[in-house]
Each structure stands twice: as structure tokens, then as C-alpha cells.
UniProtKB/TrEMBL annotation:
Source organism: Plakobranchus ocellatus
Protein name: Cd209 antigen
Domain C-type lectin: 58-177
Keyword list, A-Z: Coiled coil, Disulfide bond
Superkingdom of the source species: Eukaryota
Coiled coil: 1-35
PANTHER family to which the protein is assigned, alphabetical: MANNOSE, PHOSPHOLIPASE, LECTIN RECEPTOR RELATED
Length: 179
């Protein structure tokens, strides 16, 4: 009979211990939910005040687009990207172009989205502003009949599905990336 009483007592102690752990766990979950809620409020606050719209992460990179339309000056745009830890977008392959193109389409279709790809140094030789790397010639990132470099005026590029060469100084938003 004594062993039955001991067993019941041991079970009561184990149940009490489990109940305390469950209560601690419930409190931790409640605290984490509050932390998540606070983080979401902070993120919304921050996002509303940053001058960029941000993408999801793609292959370790994040892309951001200026929120305001301005005359595109490549050096100013590059400085603005750098201020926020990035640089003007550099497209490495067709998959990345599709991702960035889809992102700019979600942001709006009524404006130009300008990149750092340009042929300011030498007509027909397109290189990225930040890295000075040439765009790989094997990639077919251009829209049909592009680049057409009308009378050496179109030295900057925009994303419209694929790439177009355009005149620098046109009003638009610029696309940055960060790793």
C-alpha cells in the first residue's frame, strides 16, 4: 500500500513539474508573440520612412528601388544606393533579370526603372557602374532591337521586361542591390 501512495505522490510531483514547465512555455510564447508584433510595427514604421521599396531575398541578394521619381543622374543614384549599403543593380544572368523585372513590375509600370549598366566610356561597350565589369556578351538581356544607341545619346539603361538603352537624365526610379 505504501508503494501505491509513493507512486501517486511521484506522479503528483511529475504533474506539478510538467504544469510549471507548461506555464513557463506559455509565457515564453506570449513574450515571443509580443516581440514579433513589436518587430512588425517597427518594420512598418521603418519601411514607410525609407526612400526605397525592398524585394525579398534572391540568391543572397536584396534589391531596392527608389520611391521617388527624379531625373536619372547615374552618379547621384549610385551614391544614394551606397548610402544604404548597396550599389546600382548589376544583372548577372537571365534568371536574375526576370526576378528584378518582376519586382519592378510589382512596384509600378508607369515609370522608368534605371540601372547602372551604361556605355558612357565607349560606345557599344556596356559596363556596370559599380564594378566596371562588362555585361557578359553571351547573355541575351536586351529587348528586341536593343541596344540601339540612338546617335550616342542613349548611354544609360532601363528595365522594361528586359533591358533598353535610354538617354541619361530621364525621369525615373533607380534599382539598387545589396548582398
Amino acid at each position: 500500500m505504501n508503494s501505491s501512495a509513493e507512486t501517486v505522490e511521484n506522479l503528483d510531483e511529475a504533474l506539478q513539474d510538467i504544469s510549471e514547465k507548461l506555464l513557463d512555455l506559455q509565457q515564453s510564447v506570449t513574450q515571443q508573440q509580443q516581440t514579433n508584433k513589436n518587430q512588425a510595427v517597427f518594420n512598418s514604421f521603418l519601411k514607410a520612412r525609407l526612400p526605397f521599396d525592398f524585394s525579398t531575398i534572391y540568391k543572397g541578394k536584396i534589391y531596392f528601388i527608389s520611391k521617388t521619381v527624379a531625373d536619372f543622374e547615374i552618379a547621384y543614384a549610385a551614391s544614394s544606393c551606397e548610402l544604404y549599403g548597396g550599389y546600382l543593380v548589376e544583372i548577372d544572368d537571365e534568371e536574375e533579370l526576370k526576378f528584378v523585372s518582376d519586382f519592378v513590375s510589382q512596384t509600378g509600370k508607369d515609370v522608368r526603372y534605371l540601372t547602372g549598366l551604361n556605355d558612357k566610356t565607349m560606345e557599344g561597350y556596356f559596363e556596370f557602374y559599380h564594378s566596371k565589369k562588362p555585361m557578359p556578351s553571351f547573355l541575351s538581356l536586351w529587348n528586341k532591337c536593343e541596344p540601339n544607341s540612338m546617335v550616342r545619346v542613349e548611354v544609360c539603361t532601363e528595365i522594361v521586361g528586359k533591358l533598353n538603352d535610354v538617354t541619361c537624365g530621364l525621369p525615373g526610379k533607380y534599382v539598387c542591390q545589396s548582398q
